Structures are given as C-alpha cells and as structure tokens.
C-alpha cells in the first residue's frame, strides 16, 4: 500500500461546543491532523468524553467543523451536508434506534440503503427482488436467521439483530469509508463477538476504509492495522506496523492509564 | 334513519376527504403539526370561488385553489426550514394571515356562486339527485387524491418522505435531503386541504371566509378515528382509514343532529369525540372501565412514570 493513498485527510480540525452558560467553551476536537490510508482499518480508543464520537460525526457530516479542512479522496467535503456524503460514507451508531428505522420493514430499510448508495429517491418503486436478494446475501453472513424475516417490521428485532441489520445495510451501500461508533457495546458479549467478527470479515472482503471506536483494547489491537488514542480532543498515541505488533495488551493498558491519568474502566479490563 | 345518516355522512364527509389526506400526510407521515392546513382550506375556497366568478371552469378553479394552498404550505415550510421557526407557531400565524388573504383575494367576505358552473352542477346533469351528485363528486375527487398519495408514498421518493417523518438524523445519513421532503410534503398537504375548501365552496354555492374556522379539528377527528378503526403501518391502510375516519366522523355528527342535539353543540361533541379516541389510543379501552385495586395501582404507577418522563418543549 502506498502511503500517499490517503482516503481521509484532516488538517487542523477543530470543533468547539458552547456550554450552557454560553461562556465556557468546550473544545471537543483540538486542531487534529490525521490521514487514514485507503482500505485500512483504524481503531480509535480513549476515555469517555475524549471526542471520539465528535470525530466520527465530523467525518459523517452530522457535525460541521469550526476550523480546519476535511478531505475525502482528495476532495474537500467539509462544507457538504451529511446527506450529500451518504454515497461515500456510512455510519453505524451505538444505539440501534439510530441506525435502523423500526417502523419500516427490514426490506424497506435495505431499499433505503440501496437508494441511498446512488442518492436516487425517485418516483419509482424500488426493485423488490433486487433488494431482497441483496439483503439476504448480506444478512446470511451473520447466521442469525434475519434473512427469513425481511417483511417484518425492523422494530420486532432485538438490539443485536438490529445492529447486524445496520452493518449489513452499510455493507450493501459499500461505502468508501465506514464509521463504527461502539456499534457492539450495547450488546451482550456473545452477540457482540458475532457482530464484531462478521463486520471485520465484511470490511476485509470489500476492503472498505474503516474507523472504529471501541472500548475493547485487545479487540482494537487484534483487529486493526492502526490504533489511535484520543484524550481531551487530541490524538495522543498513534500505533501501527511493527510498533503496534510489538505492544501487548498490558503495555497498551498501562500507556493508556499513564496518558489519561486515570485507571481504565473495569469494563475494558473485563473484556480481555 | 341509518341509511339517512350514512348518506349524510358520505355526502359531507367525502368533501372533507382531501383535507383528511392532507392532515394524514403532514401530521402522521411527516410528523409536522401543521395548522396552516386550516388556513389553506379557506384560501383554497377563496381562490377557487374567485376563479369561478372570473369565468374559470370548475376543474381549473379547483386546481387554482390547490395552488393557493400549496403556496401557503410553501410559506410555512420556508418559515420552518429557513427561518428555523417552530411549525406549530408558523401554522398558527399563517392561518391568521390566511383569513385576511382570503378576503383580499375575494375582495369581500363572501361571494355567491349561484350563477357559476361548479363540479356539482356538472354532476347533477346525471339524473341522480343532489345528494348522490355530491357523494359522486366528493368520492371521485377523494379517490383520485387517495390513489395518488398511496402511489407517491410507495415510491422511493415517498419512502424518503416517510423516513423524514420518522427520524431526521437517520434519514440524512441515509442520503435523504430532509428539508426538501418537508417543503414538498407541506406544499402537497396544504394543496389537499385547499382542494377540500374548494369542494365545500363549490358544493354550497357560495364562499364565506368563515368556512375555515375549526376545520383542522375535522382532520384531527378523521385521523384519530381512522387510526382506531384500522391499525396498520401500511400506507394503503393509512390512507383508507383516514378517509373512513372523516366519513365516520360526519356520520356521528349527522346522528347527533338527528337525535336533537342543537347544532351549536357540534363543536363540543367533536372535541369530546377526539379526546375519547385519543385517550383510548393512549390508555387502551381500560380507561373507560372500573378495574380492581391492583389495576388501579398499576395505572397510577404508569401515570407517575409519565410525569417523570414529561419534558417541556419551548415554542420559540
Ligand atoms: N452536542 C453537544 N453539545 C455540547 N457538548 C457536547 C456535544 N457533543 C459532545 N459534547 C462534549 O464533547 C466532548 C466529547 O464528546 P464525545 O465526542 O461524545 O466523546 P466520546 O465519544 O469520546 O466519549 C464531551 O465532553 C461532550 O460532553
Ligand atoms: Mg462516544
């Protein structure tokens, strides 16, 4: 892989939130420079409030930058609204309610994903057979049997199943950039493992550039090409290649604690 | 008697069919509580009546009325999307303004259409009688708009409109330009309400600005009754149920008048009816029955949870 093939480029990216008092300003992203190599998988870790979700929202376009430049495939997209970026970027959030429309059928959700890929919501009905075919193929990988329930309302699915649907919808969209914001952290450990692993397979098979936020340090080490750690709106650690391969979980955990100045949440340690 | 009531319900109810469809589109599909629909009803009547007086044919006059409604919807949508105003507030102001605009359009508070050719005069050429002619015209117009709305909401564009009404954030990250769907949806909904205003003016043979007063409640009654009769997420069922709702509502009004309730009480009955259907939707049929102590306790707990979850939403 050539290093100049950067799919995402951030320069001096800054995002501030004005507090309730209108006087205190919280800098959620503090002049971040970042290049993400094409087809690579980047894991993003950091304590609560570090700015990870803010960074993903900036990439998706649901939040706009105060300062700085955002390029996707060497094109400035910082001024584009999220709906214009939807043919290039897909975001899977932590809460299934925000990824899948419960009131619509699973089939209709996939139809939306496919129409969103071309941003073509025209005056024609969607091609039912094509949608069902694509949905079945994408869902079968999860082995949860969702592919046989395409006509049911998505709201009848469990949280884990809905996250599987969300990832499958993203796979069908085949975006240039996939953003995963703790997309398995609301699931029970068994389901979380299945969804995370299938997501991994899909990302590798379709070689989608991916940024995934995770609480699970060992997962971050094992399944990514690069690990970034954020703290108070800055990237404080950037590991890849031999450096990343050399570091173990304990080493990473102690560096995390050193940089953040606080102990890791129990949840993270238990996830080992 | 039952036949009488049913025919009266159909006769008047179907004139309000397009309004019910507009209310369904704005409030149910788009989740926008747009009160402009009431003003558009009056505006549609005014523009259509003026068109007839100026010598337009009835169909063109109906379309003219609908354009006036669409313009009112566009204005509300711009107030909401561009000026970031609460839809409820924008609608209240627009409806107030529409009253004056209707009078300005007509040049006076009311105009007679006795000498004008209307859709209903056309229909009476078929020797069926006045009532049947009204049912026929209202039915055909409502059917056409109902089919159109069902078709539209089934297309990719319509699916995107539905998603806009469900979750704006999710819709946008799916590639849907939500503000455009709100603008077009409100224009269409108000055009439908205006079509009802035009139909009512044409059928009664005169136009008076006061016809718009309180019609939003007719739409709300249609929506709540319709949703209680038929519970389904399917679009065709939703469209059918809201039209059924408006007919049932007018049947209930006709029945109350038959039973000797004074006409002045109709608005009170309507309000009580809407309250009852909404309450039944929220609480199930249980609210009207006396239950055991345990049932009462459970209900009390549910109510306390509601108070805990209650939030204020600033209007400005
Ligand atoms: N919409 C918002 N308004 C105000 N402050 C916000 C908003 N979103 C996030 N923040 C603040 O920005 C900081 C970073 O938040 P976030 O990106 O969600 O952190 P993370 O995902 O890493 O836990 C936090 O301090 C949070 O309170
Ligand atoms: Mg977060």
Care to describe what's here?
The complex is a heterodimer of chains A (272) and B (316). Chain A is an alpha/beta fold. Chain A has one domain: Rossmann fold, CATH 3.40.50.300. Helices cover 37% and strands 25% of the residues of chain A. Chain A is built from 10 helices and 10 strands. Chain A has helices spanning 52-60, 82-85, 106-118, 128-140, 159-173, 189-205, 217-223, 241-246, 249-260, 266-270; strands spanning 6-18, 25-37, 41-46, 67-72, 75-76, 89-92, 177-181, 209-213, 226-231, 234-240. Chain A has a 6-stranded mixed β-sheet, sandwiched between helices. The longest helix of chain A has 17 residues, at 189-205. The two termini of chain A are 31 Å apart. The model of chain A has no long low-confidence stretch (mean pLDDT 91). With 316 residues, chain B is mainly α. Chain B has a single domain (2-309), classed as ABC transporter involved in vitamin B12 uptake, BtuC, CATH 1.10.3470. Chain B is built from 14 helices and 2 strands, in the order αααααβαααααβαααα. Chain B has helices spanning 2-13, 17-29, 36-53, 58-81, 87-106, 119-124, 130-154, 156-166, 168-173, 178-204, 215-229, 235-258, 266-283, 293-309, and strands at residues 110-112, 206-208. Chain B has a two-stranded antiparallel sheet. The structure holds adenosine-5'-diphosphate and magnesium ion. Adenosine-5'-diphosphate is lined by residues 17, 26, 28, 46, 48-54 of chain A. Magnesium ion binds at residues 52-53 of chain A.
């Amino acid at each position: 892989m050539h290093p100049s093939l950067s799919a995402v480029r951030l320069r001096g990216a800054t995002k501030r939130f004005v507090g309730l008092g209108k006087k205190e300003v919280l800098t959620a992203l503090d002049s971040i420079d970042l290049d993400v190599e094409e087809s690579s998988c980047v894991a993003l870790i950091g304590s609560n409030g570090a700015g990870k979700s803010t960074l993903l929202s900036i990439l998706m376009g649901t939040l706009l930058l105060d300062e700085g430049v955002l390029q996707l495939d060497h094109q400035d997209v910082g001024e584009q609204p999220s709906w214009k970026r939807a043919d290039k970027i897909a975001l899977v959030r932590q809460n299934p309610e925000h990824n899948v429309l419960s009131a619509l059928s699973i089939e209709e959700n996939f139809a939306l994903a496919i129409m969103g890929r071309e941003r073509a919501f025209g005056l024609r009905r969607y091609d039912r057979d094509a949608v069902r075919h694509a949905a079945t193929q994408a869902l079968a990988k999860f082995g949860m049997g969702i592919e046989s329930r395409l006509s049911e309302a998505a709201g009848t699915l469990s949280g884990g199943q809905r996250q599987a649907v969300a990832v499958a919808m993203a796979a069908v969209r085949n975006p240039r950039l996939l953003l995963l914001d703790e997309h398995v952290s609301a699931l029970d450990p068994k389901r979380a493992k299945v969804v995370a692993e299938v997501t991994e397979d899909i990302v590798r098979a379709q070689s989608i550039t991916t940024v995934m936020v995770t609480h699970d340090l060992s997962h971050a080490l094992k399944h990514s090409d690069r690990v970034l750690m954020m703290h108070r709106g800055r990237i404080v650690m950037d590991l890849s290649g031999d450096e990343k391969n050399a570091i173990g979980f304990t080493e990473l955990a102690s560096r995390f604690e050193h940089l953040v100045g606080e102990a890791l949440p129990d949840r993270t340690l238990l996830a080992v | 008697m039952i036949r009488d009531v049913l025919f009266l319900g159909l006769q008047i109810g179907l004139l309000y069919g397009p309004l019910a469809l507009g209310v369904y589109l704005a409030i149910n599909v788009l989740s926008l509580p747009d009160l402009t629909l009431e003003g558009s009803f009056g505006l549609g009547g005014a523009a259509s009546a003026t068109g007839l007086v100026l010598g337009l044919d009835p169909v063109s006059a109906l379309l003219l009325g609908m354009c006036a409604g669409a313009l009112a919807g566009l204005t509300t949508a711009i107030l909401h999307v561009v000026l970031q105003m609460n839809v409820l507030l924008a609608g209240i102001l627009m409806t107030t303004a529409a009253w004056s605009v209707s009078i300005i359009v007509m040049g006076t508070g009311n105009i007679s259409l006795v000498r004008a050719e209307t859709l209903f005069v056309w229909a009476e050429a078929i020797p069926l009688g006045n009532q049947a002619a009204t049912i026929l015209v209202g039915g055909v117009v409502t059917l056409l708009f109902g089919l159109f709305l069902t078709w539209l909401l089934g297309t990719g564009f319509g699916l995107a409109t539905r998603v806009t009404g469900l979750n704006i954030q999710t819709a946008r990250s799916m590639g849907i330009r939500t503000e455009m769907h709100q603008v077009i949806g409100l224009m269409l909904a108000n055009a439908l309400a205006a079509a009802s205003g035009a139909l009512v003016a044409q059928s009664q043979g005169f136009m008076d600005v006061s016809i718009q007063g309180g019609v939003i409640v007719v739409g709300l009654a249609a929506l709540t009754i319709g949703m209680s009769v038929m519970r389904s997420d399917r679009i065709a069922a939703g469209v059918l149920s809201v039209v059924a709702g408006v007919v049932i509502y007018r049947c209930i009004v006709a029945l109350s008048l038959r039973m000797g309730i004074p006409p002045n009480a109709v608005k009170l009955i309507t309000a009580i009816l809407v309250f009852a259907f909404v309450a039944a939707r929220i609480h199930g049929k249980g609210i009207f029955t006396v239950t055991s102590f345990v049932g009462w306790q459970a209900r009390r707990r549910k109510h306390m949870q509601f108070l805990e979850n209650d939030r204020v939403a600033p209007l400005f």
